[in-house]
Amino acid sequence: MNKLTVKEEDGTNYSRLGGRALTSKIIHDEVPATCHPLGAHNKLIFATGLLTGSGASSADRYSVGAKSPLTGGIKEANAGGITGLTLGKLGIKALVFENIRDDFKIIHLSKDGVQFADATPILGKDLSETATWLRDSYGKHVAVWLIGVSGEQKMNLAAIAGQDKDGEPTRFNGRGGLGAVAGSKGIKAIVIDASGVEKNRPKDKERFRQALKQYHSWLMETPGTAKVLPELGTAALVETTNALGALPTRNFSIGSMEDYKNITGETLRKTIMERGGEGTPTHACMPGCIIRCSNVYVNKAGKKVTGPIEYENIGLLGSNLDISDLDDIAELNRLCNEYGIDTIETGGALGVLMAQNVISFGDAKAAIEALHEVKKGSPLGRIIGSGADIIGKIYGEPHVPTVKGQTMPAYDPRAVKGLGVTYATSPMGADHTAGQTVRVQINHHAPEGQVNVSKNAQTVNTIWDHLGMCMFSSGAVQNRWDILADLVSGYSGEPFTGDDMLKIANETLKLEHTFNRRAGFTKAQDKLPDYFYEEENKASKTVFDVPANELETIGVTRNDL
Amino acid sequence: MNKLTVKEEDGTNYSRLGGRALTSKIIHDEVPATCHPLGAHNKLIFATGLLTGSGASSADRYSVGAKSPLTGGIKEANAGGITGLTLGKLGIKALVFENIRDDFKIIHLSKDGVQFADATPILGKDLSETATWLRDSYGKHVAVWLIGVSGEQKMNLAAIAGQDKDGEPTRFNGRGGLGAVAGSKGIKAIVIDASGVEKNRPKDKERFRQALKQYHSWLMETPGTAKVLPELGTAALVETTNALGALPTRNFSIGSMEDYKNITGETLRKTIMERGGEGTPTHACMPGCIIRCSNVYVNKAGKKVTGPIEYENIGLLGSNLDISDLDDIAELNRLCNEYGIDTIETGGALGVLMAQNVISFGDAKAAIEALHEVKKGSPLGRIIGSGADIIGKIYGEPHVPTVKGQTMPAYDPRAVKGLGVTYATSPMGADHTAGQTVRVQINHHAPEGQVNVSKNAQTVNTIWDHLGMCMFSSGAVQNRWDILADLVSGYSGEPFTGDDMLKIANETLKLEHTFNRRAGFTKAQDKLPDYFYEEENKASKTVFDVPANELETIGVTRNDL
């Protein structure tokens, strides 16, 4: 077994990079693109955003990056909660994990340094139990990252979990199997203790204060961030996408669901409110967040079941499986959280199994039982754990809603074509957070203009990922990035402009495409599965018809690489 | 369900192309490279070699080609037996299957045309039972192609079976999952009835006779084809590769086996001879074959178990699994044949499952039980059916001996480096028949010269695949291709030179690489898995160290594409 060594490095060279800009830079520079994602040459990087810990609303996110075992390309997944924030408090910009090992460790970070402990006591347990054990062992004040039974088994849909402000391990770096990379490196949990450390304060207080005031006022003025998201959460989208014919239903075969009223944001809110008890339709994952899009879902007795139930979870674990009972969706959601698996990839996986009649569409009981197999690591559990794309290969099913091996989030690309462009061309594979276009004012059914819309969204999302900001603030900020630059300048004391942010975002995308190109990606992978071009989505009455030569202008074949 | 239509096309434009040269030409010209291998746009092509049916020894092979669901690239797999020969008797140069369907048909070809029948009565049955049913239904004189339960389930390791001269369905187009492509197109069996058809005779009898005499005399003079292969079969190689440290053992972790004496060609022959009964160590799959490398293996009572037991099967189902009892290997071999699955891919799959302790190394009973799951289509059966590469992804195992998704045949590329070059650079993925170098006089452990050796072997194998010739004749013919050209000229009556053959072979390789490049392959896929470069094979004391820049001169990045 490899010796455990810790090396501290000066981050000065990276002072202008945070979040995804930093993880992608390190991966591009240091990871051989063709290496095995679960082998010794891959690196796993946790990096705080430039604004993480600044006190700005919705800006405490952090990124995790690596070469992905799911896509085979570069990957970044970010999340909120308090763990990134706590890492930043220690003055640590990034954690970089190298090499692999066979046993599992708990890594403890504090102002006194790093310590390693045997993780055996928490192996095989559910995430909530593990998080409780860690807080019982290390103190209620620590923040944790951890992987679940899926990450221990190096499954493609394994996520990394951080904790929210209430200590729940429910904030996920969900996509791309980064939990499997953590598993390959023997990282079961990272415990961060920031006690005895001074709070980071803005270097240029006045500048920061001014910018913050402006930024927060926008968040509080804009209907999306001030009212819709706090009241209905992301589930507000169900009405929108169902009307567009973009709500994935029955393994992305159609874009609307007869029973969709059962799973809307309104119904979700009403259910939680009526049941009372521990439930709340409005919950912040990060302290001081104005948007508070999260929620806590409860059973009929008012006892907490899971949280948050988000739009993507409803779309993938609900309509995509022809399941329209919120209690069933909540139980699937809970199991995903307990096992540390990505809800989107899990819904994609179950959808393909349903298309193959291994489980029946709409059979929530069977879907729940199937998820239990993930924990057991039985053959069926391993199959689910490998993700939708591989399940398609195992069962010979051509209807598999993936790009670069990754399941599409809950927007049928025939009905939100800008997202189809993002799925096809993003270095991240099918990922709405890499270039969300559903809120753009455009005819989502028309092919025209979607490449520009996606290109812009991909850049904006990269800026947000760089700063550690939640993408939900982008509707309020729009393209007034200078305020964000002022926040960064005020916080860091270093000059920073909106143009700098744009430049770094574009440079980041370029590094990511370059990595993927080295890893073997070509325009042949910058496409959707055949059936989205050929089989009409009967709800939207459209196929995906953005021309291939337009896609080539922004994907891995773009001219400036 | 799609209507069944039959279209007859004039083959004049393709008169100089046969076997692999023809299948690859059609795939290159007509199949969209990024299409789903099991979707409507893929084509499945059966093509006879230019010498098939001519009466030349070991020259009745035929090729099957398609885009492979296993590799995602172009694929050709050829086999002997009598079915290709019988197709040629009907004057049919190639069968091209388009589109997909959900039900299964039996396709009957005779001089009176094509007929389709419902295949329901033979679904789910073992191959030997199916072949018997077909001969009982259509007459003992017909020749058949068929797929097994694996092809019905569209598994990646599904093969297509033809029959040998005794009517046994044991000649396999094994590699690349072509049986799954047949399954996707609803082809359960093709029955060919050549009764009432005149035998094809050489157009230039004298020229053909002269060349044939020369060619046959070489086969009868050369120790390999005259003595070693007829006596010991391909299993003669066990001694050679074990001594080289190239015999894959315990999931390609080392290249020699302690008990290798139990599985040598000598032991195989001795066992068959001693047991007597229905067994024979020397058997021809094609009528008139001088080499007769096949065999029939029997149990202690002299009853037939399976046949043939070949070197690759011993290496992959034996040493690679740490199994050294010929009766166990024979039973695994038998199950592969009955279920219509590729023995190499199956051995690779079981090897990775053993590396993951899903089954224990050396546990033949468990391996046999696991194979039964393939027929059942249980989750474990589906996992095995997906092939070694995907199993690596399902279990997070980096030690997976595949290139372009396909399991290496029974030569550790650290110890036979020319084959390592072939594995890395052939358009076919890891495939010894695409460029066999083990019999070349070279230091197989040294990196020097291997690229040239492989390049030459890749060309020669392509020539052989074009003509429908068995690669085992190449040792006798060496580079005296003019005799082969004379055979072709004599048989077809058209001018044909050795240079023509060379040119067509090189053009075929070029088309194949071009297809793969369009399908998304780059030099990133022209490599072996990391561990062959980094972890020493303790038997050969070598790693694979042929420089990457040398590989680039002959793979998908070669300059002339």
Describe this structure in words.
Chains A, B: Belongs to the AOR/FOR family. Chains A, B: Residues 1-196 form the Aldehyde ferredoxin oxidoreductase N-terminal domain. Chains A, B: Keywords: 4Fe-4S, Iron, Iron-sulfur, Metal-binding, Oxidoreductase. Chains A, B: This is Aldehyde ferredoxin oxidoreductase. Chains A, B: It comes from Anaerobacillus alkaliphilus. Two copies of one chain form a homodimer. In chain A, strand 12 (294-298) and strand 13 (304-306) form a beta hairpin. Chain A has a domain at 12-192: 4-Layer Sandwich (Aldehyde Ferredoxin Oxidoreductase,  A, domain 1). Chain A is 40% helix and 12% strand. In chain A, helix 19 packs across helix 20. The two termini of chain A are 40 Å apart. With 561 residues, chain A is an alpha+beta fold. In chain A, the strands form four sheets. A six-stranded mixed beta sheet of chain A has the order 6-5-10-7-8-9, sandwiched between helices. In chain A, strands 3-2-1-4 form a four-stranded antiparallel beta sheet, sandwiched between helices. Chain A has a three-stranded antiparallel beta sheet with strand order 11-12-13. Chain A has 22 helices and 15 strands. The A-B interface holds A 33-36, 38-39, 41, 69, 153-156, 180, 183-184, 378-380, 382-383, 385-386, 390, 393-396, 398, 517-525, 527, 529-531 and B 33-36, 38-39, 41, 69, 153-156, 180, 183-184, 378-380, 382-383, 385-386, 390, 393-396, 398, 517-525, 527, 529-531.
